[in-house]
Amino acid sequence: MLSSNTYVGVDIGSESSMVFIDIKDLDKRLKKPFLVIHDVSGFNLLLERLNSVESEYNSKCILIVENTGNYSTVFAHFFSSKGFPVKLINPIQTNRISKAGMRKAKTDKLDSILIAGMKSYNWVKSYDYKTVSTDYLKKLCRKYDSFVKQRALIKNQLSDDLDLVFWGYNKIFKDITCKTSMYILKEFTSPEDFLKSDPNKVINSIKQFSKRSLKFAREKYELIEKKAREALILSPNSNFKPIILPSINIIHELDESIASLEKEIIKLSKSNEEIKLVNSITGFGIVGSATIISELRDPYRFSNAKQMVAFAGLDPKVFESGKFKGNDNKITKRGSRLIRYWLFIAALTCVRKVNGKYVNKTIYDYYHKKLKEGKPKKVALIAICSKLMKIIFAVLRDRKEFVIIDNETHCLNHSQKAA
User: Fold this and answer.
1) Are the C-beta atoms of residues 261 and 140 closer than 8 Å to each other?
2) Model's pTM, two decimal places?
3) In the sheet where 59-66 sits, what is the strand order?
4) To which H or E segment does residue 62 belong?
5) Which sequence spans correspond to the domains of the chain?
6) What topology is assigned to 4-129 in CATH?
7) Which of 217, 295, 299, 322 could form a disulfide with 206 if both were Cys (CB 3.0 to 4.6 A apart)?
């Protein structure tokens, strides 16, 4: 059995890393920092060196690695699979410690020595690298978010272009990228081309794509026909196919990619207990739940709800100096933007009414209370985001699915636990 730990600091680069093995033997450091090339032979050489250190010094090597995305993931995956504990740390923490020194020197060698010694700082937080599946899920969720953003951008461009070539078209459909609208824009080259088409054929196509009644299809056709006639007079350029078709094709490709990513995310989420627990909370879908868990990486490393709220960047900036106390404290926004995004979407869902009933009456009451206190709507919604983050912490801590309860019952349960 190994009697002690040896910390190995790794300053990750794109093609190579600087490694420092911090062996304290009679108050002497045995090795200087050395370079490790990022390929199989380079990793194997480091593996031999680590095994040699463990054998010679009866000490377990623990690798401390900055979390720098793909490069650190490949490194951590290789050595974790070989049985070495890998601790991932936030580069912000390394930066803070390096700036605390008097000297303004920064090299890869110094960084590797600094990282190896970071375990001596009690405030430095690290988490264990476990499997590559979390990183893969994180990649999928971020790619999903990226494509959704791109689609929204192209959709806005399409809307602007339509104002130029088919004035009034944007008012016909609530969503100009719906199936019926996309059919019209792809089928006809101009408003004039639409007016020359067979009305019955177009009406039947609208009925098929919209999956609505024949009456609805006729009314929609008449509205498009009216706007097409107006466009011939008002639009500076009525031939819209060259400017519109590229945007439609991009949106179609993005829709397919988004659907494929969503399918893969749902597939991976089926076996993930943490995602199921977050998904049980009102307002969170599978993609949102998967994104939050993948961004948290190891949610059980947080000892209390405040830490998780701070990780999401929802904790307020506090500025006090002497007698001065800042009272316009905004949230730090230092954590994951995607966590805040999905929390905000869930917050909007929770304060809505569906079929005359509140989606979550308890959350709505909390929101209404904040509004009564004079808080702006956005500030009140941010307060709900913070509350939802605390609920996520609670369901993960207790490993129990979320159940909506009123405030009185919640206070009663809390007092009984305290007793």
Assistant:
1) yes
2) 0.79
3) 34-37, 16-22, 4-12, 59-66, 86-89, 126-128
4) strand 59-66
5) 4-129, 138-262, 272-418
6) Nucleotidyltransferase; domain 5 (3.30.420)
7) 217
